[in-house]
């Protein structure tokens, strides 16, 4: 039995997220599993490093699947490129040890979020960024990024309901870069709660326009109350850039 690691890129705008949903063929996982079934004749479930929401994109999602197939990796890659829709691309395949698990072995992830920050919206970037015409105070947002970095209980920055699992995560880096009219926010951490990046982004933007202060971050950490943080920004600006393994 082979254990194959996949590195996947996708444009999420047509899909209801990563995770397979019943009989729906509008998920990334479902599309890929259907092609693997055609390729191998086996009914296989792929294991993703984590879920991405409807409309979210990926440049470096990772998954693995087990198969008895004797096809070479190049033959499999060619099959994926021929039969997957053009907005889902398997970039790389690797044979891995039997115990490799895309989710359990992941040590961290990098996400990025794009903001189109100009008075006039973009016809081309509308599916890959959030439109924010207001002036954004970069210095204040960078101060807020410093407060978000480190190990904290991020319950107030998540869409989780009640959970017995830990909501403590470590954010090692948050960076803001301007590329023309695009502001790109990059988040690196050991893991992220449900909608955590999108809620942190909403909070940073509220600080950027003056609706919240940098000091409000301390209060959100202290109370863990979701409603004190910013809005959940739209999914189309979010990209899963990379999953880290040892």
UniProtKB/TrEMBL annotation:
Catalyzed chemical reaction(s): uridine(38/39/40) in tRNA = pseudouridine(38/39/40) in tRNA
Family per similarity comment: Belongs to the tRNA pseudouridine synthase TruA family.
One example GO MF annotation: tRNA pseudouridine(38-40) synthase activity
EC number annotated for this UniProt entry: 5.4.99.12
Function in brief: Formation of pseudouridine at positions 38, 39 and 40 in the anticodon stem and loop of transfer RNAs.
Keyword Transcription regulation: no
Chain ranges of the Pseudouridine synthase I TruA alpha/beta domain: 8-105, 144-245
Protein name: tRNA pseudouridine synthase A
InterPro entries: PsdUridine_synth_cat_dom_sf, PsdUridine_synth_TruA, PsdUridine_synth_TruA_a/b_dom, PsdUridine_synth_TruA_C, TruA/RsuA/RluB/E/F_N
Keyword Phosphoprotein: no
Subunit structure, interactors included: Homodimer.
Active site: 53 (nucleophile)
Enzyme class: isomerase
GO biological process: tRNA pseudouridine synthesis
